[in-house]
Amino acid sequence: MFLSYTNRIRILVILAAALSLCTAGFLLTQKKGSDLPDLQPPHVSEDGTRIRFRQDDPGLELIKVMEVSKRGNFVNVDHPAELIKIDRGMAWIESDIPESSVGKLKESEHFDIRPLLSSNELFEGQANLNTKEVDPISRNLKVKIKFRNLGERFKVGERFLLRVKEKVNYKNIILPSISVLSVEGKNYVFLETEQREFLLKEIKLGEVDEEKSIITEGLEEGDRVVSDGAILLKGLSFGF
């Protein structure tokens, strides 16, 4: 049965909410899945390898990107965040971070914050950690980050991306297994090549388990890999 792009987004929003995914949470606060208007699907190249979204496409909020750093030893993970407080030239954003990343947060001196709709601006923030606020079901920790908000440029409710550098103890690149797509015996990931544009890339796998996959060929330093939302891009690329 063929599903329209609008219905695919509705289904993914509902499933993501059920799994307590952060990105879908922000989308649901703005618009319920059942209230989505008819959407024009993203532009897909004839061979299905390139996908470009419109700027206001809600599907973008279901996509999270990881940046592969030098030698694959670190990856930069972008976590969705929302501005919750403004006071005297300062602003506080809140983000849900996996409990496994708490130790990495403590080791960092600062965090990069990027407005969701701006790819070129970065702000530096400081974290306020309370390890008692771990959700018993999702095992996520609510983290508050403070940064300068001169002239109160940003308002409560605006959305951001909180970048956390996470260490990887492998010689090869390691990614969440949900970012790897298998089609007809081949393995792929999607790369973010430009803002709102994604490229299908074939890769070679090493050891794989339910949570993580080791990439032995196909990725390089600086590649920005789709970690969440790859299933949406797969449907657009392969037509299902």
UniProtKB/TrEMBL annotation:
UniProt keyword terms in alphabetical order: Transport
Top-level taxonomic group: Bacteria
Pfam families: Beta-barrel_RND_2 (PF25954), CzcB_C (PF25975)
InterPro entries: Beta-barrel_RND_2 (IPR058792), CzcB_C (IPR058649), MFP_Cation_Efflux (IPR051909)
Every CzcB-like C-terminal circularly permuted SH3-like domain range: 176-234
Coiled coil: none
GO biological process: copper ion export; plasma membrane copper ion transport
GO cellular component: cell envelope
Record domain CusB-like beta-barrel: where: 92-158
PANTHER family listed in its UniProt record: CATION EFFLUX SYSTEM PROTEIN CUSB (PTHR30097), SLR6042 PROTEIN (PTHR30097:SF4)
Protein name per its UniProtKB record: HlyD family efflux transporter periplasmic adaptor subunit
Species this protein is from: Leptospira langatensis
